[in-house]
């Protein structure tokens, strides 16, 4: 695969140590045949029995904020990581939940996904803000408590500026 490394232990066993890119949690998800949509930046590792697809889907396009989503299917262990803590929310049938797309880690692939502009169309177009998504259960959502985009937006103004050359 283009973005995966594969490790095989010798007969005596072995160990692989993993760490996420940003400080935060790792969720261990035991897949049993369901479909899970995962932000590509949140995917960490999985057993070879968990299949990953980067096929374009309506759900991926509606729920992603400029990043790709992976579709995980199959049976086995899947590891996802987050920036900050991972909050798991289980929705009952028909229950709705609104999530900022920059906080989304993963969600059940059978859930209904509806994008919604933040604060109306004018605010969305001119504020630089994107969309939130409304997910409808049943299913589970994995949400990160911090936003990598918010971190970037905070860091950039802190960077030193080159000296002015105006004379």
Structure described in brief:
With 167 residues, this protein is mostly beta strands.
Written overview of the protein:
It is a single chain. By secondary structure, this protein is mainly β. 14% of the residues lie in helices and 41% in strands. It has helices spanning 58-63, 121-127, 148-158; strands at 26-39, 43-46, 50-53, 69-81, 86-91, 96-100, 104-108, 112-117, 131-136, 139-144. The strands form two sheets. Strands 1, 2, 3, 4, 5, 7 and 10 form a seven-stranded antiparallel beta sheet that branches. A three-stranded antiparallel beta sheet has the order 6-9-8. The longest helix has 11 residues, at 148-158. The protein is flat, with a radius of gyration of 19 Å.
Lay out the secondary structure:
Layout: E1 26-39, E2 43-46, E3 50-53, H1 58-63, E4 69-81, E5 86-91, E6 96-100, E7 104-108, E8 112-117, H2 121-127, E9 131-136, E10 139-144, H3 148-158
Antiparallel strand pairs: 1-4, 1-7, 2-4, 3-4, 5-10, 6-9, 7-10, 8-9
Number of helices: 3
Structural class: mainly beta
* Overall morphology: flat
Radius of gyration (CA) equals 19 Å
| Helix proportion range | 10-25%
Mean pLDDT: 84
SSE ordering: EEEHEEEEEHEEH
Unreliable segments of 5+ consecutive residues: 124-128
Strand residue percentage = 35-45%
Report how far the terminal alpha carbons are from each other. Answer: 55 Å
For the sheet with most strands, the description reads:
7 strands, antiparallel
The strand count comes to 10
């Amino acid at each position: 695969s283009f973005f995966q490394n594969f490790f095989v232990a010798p007969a005596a066993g072995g160990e692989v140590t993993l760490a996420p890119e940003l400080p935060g949690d790792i969720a261990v998800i035991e897949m049993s045949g369901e479909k899970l949509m995962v932000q590509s930046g949140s995917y960490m590792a999985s057993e070879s029995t968990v299949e990953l697809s980067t096929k374009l889907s309506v759900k991926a396009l509606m729920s992603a904020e400029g990043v790709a989503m992976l579709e995980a299917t199959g049976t086995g262990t899947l590891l996802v990581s987050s920036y900050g803590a991972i909050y798991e929310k289980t929705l009952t049938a028909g229950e709705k939940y609104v999530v900022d797309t920059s906080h989304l880690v993963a969600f059940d692939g059978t859930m209904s996904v509806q994008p919604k502009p933040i604060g109306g169309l004018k605010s969305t177009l001119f504020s630089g803000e994107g969309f939130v998504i409304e997910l409808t259960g049943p299913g589970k959502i994995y949400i990160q408590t911090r936003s990598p985009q918010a971190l970037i937006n905070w860091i950039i103004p802190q960077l030193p500026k080159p000296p002015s050359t105006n004379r």
